[in-house]
Amino acid sequence: MLRIFAPTESHPGETRAPLVPATVAKLVKLGANVEVQQGIGASIYFADSEYEAAGAKISIDRLRSLAEADLVLRLRKPPVEEASQLKRGAIHISFLDPFNERALVETLAKAGVTAISMEMIPRVAVAQKMDALSSQANLAGYVAVTVAAAASKRIFPMMMTPAGTVKPLRVLVIGVGVAGLQAIATARRLGATVEAFDTRPVVEEQVKSLGAKFVKADLGETGETAGGYAKALTPEQLAKQREVMAARAAQSDVVITAAQVFGRKAPVIVTTEMIRQMKPGTVVVDTAIETGGNVECSEFDKEIEINGVKVIGFANLPGRAAANASEMYSNNLGAFIEHFWDTNHFNLDLNHELLKACVITHGNEICNETIRNVYQSKS
After folding, report:
1. What percent of the chain has pLDDT over 70?
2. pTM score > 0.85 for this model?
3. Three-state DSSP class for 149?
4. Residue from 123, 170, 264, 372 carrying the catalytic annotation
């Protein structure tokens, strides 16, 4: 019987859990032997007894369980020292950040581990239930707005009162991916006037469907990748984009940046000079801080103030809604395993289009063509 182990997250400040009891029950029903580390759900108020009731065994020896597991499930990338402790031939599934974690990927390959990267699952119809990047980005967009609302000294909606009329806040969202769309929807639900910008004209209809205004800028040829991500802009295009954004941001009360380029450092869209031109009291939330940041002066996991403008670069925004984030990620893992489950084992068919895209290491090699080419280009 396949032995699955889910350890607690060791990344500092991580409040999410990779598995919740409901997913454990589904995996057990498939025929798996599931083990979770003691206290795995403590941060989201799931007791060990709830995991046991779902069919899991509770491990009090993390390293032993890691070394004996056939399939390891976690959320964050593993520490390098733990990657080398995994059983040869084991399958490890988590976010890996393979573009930037070459040493970790090479360690996993050397250890003979089949490493699957959740962020590499392609955005195709059949994989929607497995798309952990989208599930977590969705929550990041929501949390970004609530963080901005808490930091602002003004309310979002218009109010007509005997004491006067309160105008709605003006919110600018830069980057209309999953996080950006959720930020738009949340700000609109709170009653703000919202406008949004993206380099991909194809998202204009989505922005308008949420009741926001789409800001247009003539940047020349732009577009998106096959996976639905924005293509990187040239330096000239970035300069033009910043010019347009500077004028819009100066008129806004809240600016939320959510521009990402898959596999690359986030582009700097809001410069420090643009921050200095904004009105005192404006709140700027940089949701891309963990990939380098869209705001030139944002600081990792901090809130700073420049000329009366609050610049927030909180890391792990989904972790601020840890219960929902854990449930969603756990569902993503469960759907992924179920999709490839075949009579009490995980069917590792490396010719399958989904696995071909997200399996990074196998058989002592870095087998993913995309990642292999990236590493070769940097050698």
Report:
1. 96
2. yes
3. helix
4. 123
